[in-house]
Amino acid sequence: MAxxxxxxxxxxxxxxxxxxxxxxxxxxxxxxxxxIVLLARPAASSDGVRYDYRAYTECKSHPEPALYxxxxxxxxxxVTDFRTEDDGNYSPAFVLYNMSAATVYSFSCWxxxxxxTTAHVKAKILTLANAxxxxxxxxLVRNDCWSFLKGGFTLNSAxxxxxxxxxxxxxxxxxxxxxxxxxxIRSASLQPFSPEQWNQxxxxxxxxxxxxxxxxxxxxxxxxxxxxxxxxxxxxxxxFPFGSAISRTILGNKLYQxxxxxxxxxxxFENELKWYATEPYPGKEDYTVADQLxxxxxxxxxxxxxxxxxxxxxxxxxxWVKNLTGSQLRAAVSGRIESLLSRYKGxxxxxxxxxxxxxxxxxxxxxxxxxxxxxxxxxxxADPLATLFLNDFNVVEVCDDLSSSADSYVxxxxxxxxxxxxxxxxxxxxxxxxxxxxxxxxVLDKLGTLRLPIWLTEIDISSSFDPKTQAAYLEEVLRExxxxxxxxxxxxxxxxxxxASCYQMCLTNQNFTNLxxxxxxxxxxxxxxxxxxxxxxxDRGSFNFSAFLGEYKxxxxxxxxxxxxxxxxxxxxxxxxxxxxxxxxx
Length: 586
Fold this sequence. Notes:
The protein is built from 14 helices and 27 strands. By secondary structure, it is α/β, with parallel strands linked by helices.
């Protein structure tokens, strides 16, 4: 069933930088209403609806049922199949009324095309009042099966009338004619959530994935349960890795070191492990600064990520390496891996093997398509205990960079897996402008289906925003990342340079007084750590509580009897039971 015909007038208006005249807006609206057969009206309430984390990365012969039974698009699921013709510009699909700026919208659907063989399809939302549009999700779509598109959006201002439409983004076959292409949509769903609901979903996931219930049972020397014993629990360490980039400026700076150690249990070196830093000239290796940074991290019981072995961007490739070809280049890259990983074997929990390879291909362009496969194979043999990562930008940050869409990332992983690479980790840099939080969650949902560790590796907010706005956006990103069940660690890209500046965002000034972003970090670290827990055993001799994962000290006293010990909380759906026996001291 046709939803709409080609509509070049709307395409031109949506991409124009000049404002629409009232008459133009009215004409556009009337024309769209004539073209669009099915209309959507947001439901009045979504009370009780829980966020659905389901996502799919495999192409299926038949689409799955719509999430949320379609949400405010539930009427669309009564249509067996409908299509929107696309001329490469603009094709309206759904008209949406009375959209709220105070609402978070989660969108999903299944998509198929008739030609070309493979193409990226974008879902976008157009606000008719100001002709502003934004990308809300993408999918790498085929003509022989159905692909899952998941995304979301919030609006900057309320909209009486908006259009949710689909658009071809990249044609895999240059000979394909856009005019002959059709985008088919099934199982469409648009589910609204209030900010309170969205935040509650986060809190629920934190309880499920970052915390665990504990039951302390206290008995006397005869094994009888003790009622009224005093229990004190204190968290020693956090299980979830939360850290920041550091650079050589932290060395010898006691104030900086104290400030860092008070907050973080993980670190990554900003530039000091990169090839241009450790071997600026052929055969002239210098690991002095990297060694000192590693010593600082290890002395404070933090974990360190290895960043990076190779950077695919030629801009950051050592100048002398750019001049090598063939066997010379192969020898150089083999020497790089062997030197780096033999020196630091077992010291770094991760290695970013190929950095930003979704955007750049310096090594594969010169050494062939198997170069990355060889890098991973050599690195795994050199340091079997390290987790090997790809790492790239604009995966969660923006919707429009199709080089690093979730599906592009998955496609590259599968391509390398076919070559023999066993992947162990997904790195998402996270250099954000204004974050689209429902889109961030949707991407994490999709990548999470691969069941690999996901780390947010370089989180910051653009310096184009004032410090308070940076802090507000940072808080949203960190809350979303910490709550998501597929995220295993978060790193901030906030190393301070010699002039007290940072790449995009600093947490503190040169006197180590927090800036607004630093205050956000401290607030969240306080929320994500168990406060000292005090209580007494009940009439069954037990004391129950919920605590964040990590290491704990436990003290139990009753009359003149005392017992002390430690315990660990690792992730599990089961309650942790701890049995304490009080015995008179001898």
